[in-house]
Amino acid sequence: MNDFQAIADRVEIEALRGEFTDAAMMRDRPRLASLFTPDGALRMPDIPAEQVGREEIRAGGERLQSQWDFFVQTTHPGTILLDGDTATGRAYIQEIARTRDGRQGLNYAVYHDRYQRTAEGWKFAERVYEVRYLDTSPLAGTAPHPAQGSAIHPADATATPASAASFADPASAERLERTAAALRANGFAAEILDDAAAARARVRDLVPEGAGVLTGASETLRLSGIDEDINVGGRYDAVRPRVLAIDRATGADEIRRLVTGPDFVVNSVAAVTETGSLVLASGSGSQLPANAGGAAHAVWIVGAQKVVPDLSTALRRVEEHALPLENARAQAVYGMPSAVNRLLILNAEPHPGRGTVLLLREAIGY
């Protein structure tokens, strides 16, 4: 190996270590996993945790990062020993972290690395994380600004996991603004309105007369009067009354075509995250294709109590809050329980102008 090749290898390995820290800080789990060889291993005996292979590393990172309320990792260069197409090395790190269950602290640690040259460049064959110093004293600071892609914000820096009761409380004005900004950054149109009456008027502006409109089975739409406006008022080509008139035994294909690709779908969601994602839950799944992209346009009306910090909390809200209430309604109306058989998560809207989220300052629906 000539000197120029050795220099190039060292630069690439150092870039690999920097990429790892960036992926961890940005919570980019697929990118972090891609930095390892297909059979690479990430071992953290002090946690304890061990993942072997890219899929385990991705999934393990997701589990760990879902527990973070606040996390910063700083990596300092260490040694690199080259040996042809393999190398070993160490990197030194300082971390401060707070988890959602209240654990927190400062630590200094070492990554013991093995690297492998591949067709894609240098990759980690193994990273072993060794803690050298740990201080679990309470952290006095907070995160002054939300990082791009992070679910953590100043108001949440000392938060503990939300209780089921809190899922019924309206979000603050600051959280609504933060959520609207994140939705816009993810390609959705987002508006903050005072109440259901304002949303009812806004839907009339957004959906032109005569449009084919599918409404979701939503308490928000029912309580606001939007469901009645669309399905009874005669202003629109309402899909749901047409579906209800079709014999399900003989007209299943027709029903499927009607609900899959309307001009508009008007619905609510089970949760909206402060990072700009929408979460919808369904028993049958029939309404989800239109929301996912089958409808040319979508309008979601969302009460302030549905705002949550992140996706893990959104899923808790579905199971712990929305499902029990929907189950009680289904038992009363249909004589049978409900279930979360289908989940739809909309992280972004790739078609500008298609999806509009109307965030209300009041709580409505569940």
Model description:
The chain has helices at residues 3-25, 29-34, 54-66, 173-185, 196-206, 219-224, 226-231, 239-244, 252-260, 288-294, 311-334; strands at 36-44, 49-52, 68-76, 80-83, 86-99, 104-118, 121-135, 189-193, 212-215, 237-238, 264-267, 271-273, 278-282, 297-302, 307-308, 342-346, 355-360. It is of the alpha/beta class and 366 residues long. Strands 1, 2, 3, 4, 5, 6 and 7 form a seven-stranded mixed beta sheet that branches. Residues 145-160 have low confidence and may be disordered.
* Total DSSP E strands: 17
Percent helix: 25-40%
H/E element sequence = HHEEHEEEEEHEHEHHEHHEEEHEEHEE
Shape: elongated
Estimated structural class: alpha/beta
The assembly state of the depicted protein chains is single chain
Using only C-alpha atoms, the radius of gyration works out to 25 Å
Instruction: Please give the count of helices.
Output: 11
For the sheet with most strands, the description reads: 7 strands, mixed
Percentage of residues in strands? 25-35%
Mean pLDDT: 88
Distance between the termini: 65 Å
Q: Would you identify the regions where 5 or more consecutive residues have pLDDT less than 50?
A: 145-160
